Amino acid sequence: MTVRTRFAPSPTGRLHLGNVRAAAFNWLLARQKGGAFILRIEDTDVARNVAGGEAAIIEDLKWLRLDWDEGPDIGGPHGPYRQSERDASYGRAVERLAASGAAYHCFCTEQELEEDAEEFGEGRTAQRYSGRCRALDRAERVRRVEAGERHVIRFAVPDGTTSVEIHDEIFGAISFPTSDIDDFVLRRSDGRVTYNFAVVVDDIEMEISHVVRGVGHLSNTPKQALLFDAFGVPRPVFGHLPTVLGPDGKKLSKRLGATAVTELRGQGYPPDAVLNYLSLLGWSHPEEKEVLTRSELVASIGLDRVGRSDTQLDLEKLRWVSAQHLATESLAGLASHVRPFVAVESFPAATANLEAVVDTLRTRLSTYGDINAHLGLLYPPEGESMEKRKALGADPAVRKVLEAVRDRLAGAPAWEAAALDQAVRGAGADAGAKGALLFHPVRVLLIGSEKGPDLGKILAAIGRGEALRRFGQALG
Ligand code: GLU
Asked: Which of 285, 302, 328 is the last residue of a domain?
């Protein structure tokens, strides 16, 4: 079987960690099986669509490098890929079901339906349809349709069905009693089709083999399964991913935890770290590994290791995963990723020698954007630093050490961390100082603190001109 998965977002806002997780799983599964990943935009709820919603989804998915093989922007053999453009398919499908008797026209008025509901009983949330129009004979149906009478098309739950049995790859065998399922509407009187119907028509026409989505959709699944059966098409494999809760353990809300993908991008999270973190929302690696590259994820993902219990967003964990990903990057790669995040207006010198700067600070970074929180270490506020430097120069013993270091640095043939470290030690030998007596004053002079990164790395990062300028402030 060719594996074909899909991500079917509604363009109602930006993607966030809770809803993009389904995209991540579907993409990983498709790539693992050498199958296809399809992007479908479910934009029929016009009132909820937001302007630019589809473009934003596409931008976020591209950033995460979840590429699709068919979709609204690139087309494909099973298009169109926007539900708003698929009326012809829905029309044909509704006709097919009506012709086979699996669906029927219902002419009941609002008032009749309300009366039915009252009769059905107070306190029942499900408003079941009585089935009145199911019994109409064909001739009467045709006559009323031709007379232009308002009607909907309802699905005829097959007679004698008492339950719908579903197999879910994650939740196992589930039996839904049909007492909870009435003859639901497929097409409204204004011609718009309903969600469950559109999804099934699309999944059939797009030859979707695996429907993997949030467990919130599990309750739609029996209706969808009945529709697949009515079309005579084998049901896809269903897998419902557990609920993602906010960091407070409550339903994801805009305020808490609904962290938008675009925000993470702005903060400088690597896309592979975000994908890694998304995979851990419900799934675990067979060896419980938590830091996984994209290709390791593709190789190891599987619905068999997805749990059923709710999973909770943990943004600290995301930061940790991100830090692990940064730690494996080459220096050149890391510096190129950090570069666009540097606040050049605050740290204009930082980008001149960025690789050395990043080399000095990389162990402190969990995201690329973290760089700005640490650049102050290499570029401390000028006024305060000058005071400290002058005080150092005023102490004759310290001055002697600093002069020796300055002289070595002024003549250093290569401005590179290891060589500069040697130069400082050599200067210590010249001046008869080592250990704290050597390193502390040099570090205070450079960055205002006795503790901090290696001196060689600090010197390499700030550059010869700046280093000598700082020595000049101390030594005059
Ligand atoms: N459009 C639905 C949503 O955004 C997804 C439907 C599905 O995956 O079947 O929740």
From this structure: 328
- Between the CA of 65 and the centroid of ligand 1 the distance, in Å, is 20
Instruction: Indicate if the alpha-carbon torsion angle 272, 13, 198, 242 is positive or negative.
Output: positive
> Which of these three, 195, 219, 250, is where a domain ends?
195
247, 275: one domain? yes
Query: Residue 224 CA: which ligand 1 atom is closest?
Result: 9
From ligand 1's centre to the CA of 9, what distance in Å? 6
**pLDDT digit string (tens) for 169-211?**
999 999 999 887 889 999 999 999 999 999 999 999 999 999 9
- The verdict on residue 348 lying in a domain is no
Residue 22 domain-assigned? yes
Contacts of 108 (CB under 8 A, 6+ apart): 116, 129, 132, 133
Atom of ligand 1 nearest to the CA of 7: 8
Look up 457 and say whether it is catalytic: no
For residue 120, the model assigns a pLDDT of 63
Domain coverage including residue 264: 1-70+242-328
What type of residue sits at position 121?
G
